[in-house]
Design a protein that fits this description.
Elements: H1 2-17, H2 28-32, E1 35-40, H3 46-64, E2 67-70, H4 76-84, E3 90-93, H5 95-104, E4 109-114, E5 122-126, E6 149-151, H6 157-169, E7 183-184, H7 188-197, E8 202-206, H8 207-216, E9 225-229, E10 237-240, H9 244-248, H10 252-261, H11 268-276, E11 282-283, H12 291-299
Parallel strand pairs: 1-2, 1-3, 6-7, 6-8
Antiparallel strand pairs: 3-10, 4-10, 4-11, 5-8, 5-9
Helix pairs in contact: 1-3, 3-11, 4-5
Length: about 300
């Protein structure tokens, strides 16, 4: 996996130097042409995120014939705020942040999701010193009572929202049943690191990040272990802003959807992009896929 990431980074850098995914150019016309500004919630290591999003920028630029640039954001809330103000055109959101973005920008266009997002999962992890043991079902999450526990970002679907739902289903109240108030690490990688270090006895994160860390051998399985994987739910997806056609030309939004759905790994460049997203293909999605997330978000006070 580390080799794949190094190769991916090198590929993105090469594209950047060629002008494929960067805002700079030797041509004055290209410099002044409006760019499609893409972003993603900062749910993992920033270097990995930049490699992935720059690869997507290069693919979209080649597919659409418009300049594309990746705009990093500081946190989940910033991605929604910048989308609302029109400073981001296309964002790869989690389930909850996608609902938040569409609430604040009613004319936003839901475009597509990865194949894995139709059946996404969270994984609860624990430091072996906590004595949690393997949990066989949702009802077994009661084993986390009395533990020092951390979620990911407060607005994370896989690192907070759905885990809260499953905990509540087991009768565990995160506000009162842990040892002190739960933490909010800010990202899935940080959740792993905090539990591994013993700063927290247990936590929960995106199963994809957990699997990536295992494959990369970038965690100590003597100090942090998976104890329960949740049932499935819909999660990440791409949303476009309502001004894309006005800024970049009629039909660009539809062409953008088509370009995303055309990602099937049919050539080396597409395979690389999909690999960086941990997917085999990109598939259609619909607003009703996130009704459950919206309902839970309202229950938790994360949506108005």
């Amino acid at each position: 996996m580390w080799v794949k990431r190094v190769l991916a980074g090198a590929a993105a850098l090469s594209l950047c130097l060629l002008g494929a995914a960067c805002s700079g150019s030797d041509g004055a016309g290209e410099e002044t042409a409006p760019a499609l500004r893409i972003s993603a919630i900062p749910d993992r290591d920033p270097t990995e995120l930049a490699t992935r999003e720059n690869a997507m920028a290069a693919y979209l630029q080649a597919s659409l014939g418009v300049r594309v640039e990746y705009v990093p954001v500081t946190d989940y809330a910033a991605s929604v705020s910048l989308f609302k103000t029109g400073d981001l055109d296309l964002v790869f959101y989690g389930g909850l942040t996608g609902v938040q973005a569409r609430q604040q920008v009613p004319d936003a266009v839901l475009l597509a999701q990865r194949d894995i997002d139709a059946t996404f999962k969270s994984v609860f992890i624990a430091n072996p010193s906590a004595g949690v043991g393997q949990i066989s079902g949702v009802e077994g999450l009661t084993a986390l009572r009395g533990k020092r526990f951390t979620f990911g970002s407060e607005s994370s679907t896989s690192g907070r929202l759905m885990p809260e739902y499953f905990l509540a289903d087991a009768g565990v109240d995160s506000a009162t049943d842990f040892a002190g108030s739960p933490g909010y690490s800010g990202s899935h990688d940080k959740t792993v690191d905090l539990v591994e270090s013993g700063s927290y006895e247990a936590g929960v994160l995106n199963v994809q990040v957990w699997q990536d860390r295992l494959e990369a051998h970038s965690l100590d399985t003597e100090k942090v272990q998976a104890v329960f994987t949740t049932p499935t739910y819909h999660d990440y997806h791409w949303i476009a802003g309502p001004e894309v056609d006005d800024r970049l030309g009629d039909g660009v939004t539809n062409r953008l959807r088509d370009a995303l759905l055309a990602l099937d790994g049919s050539d080396a460049a597409e395979k690389k992009v999909l690999e960086l997203y941990g997917a085999r293909s990109v598939i259609p999605t619909a607003p009703e896929n996130y009704d459950e997330i919206e309902e839970i978000g309202r229950q938790l006070g994360l949506l108005r």
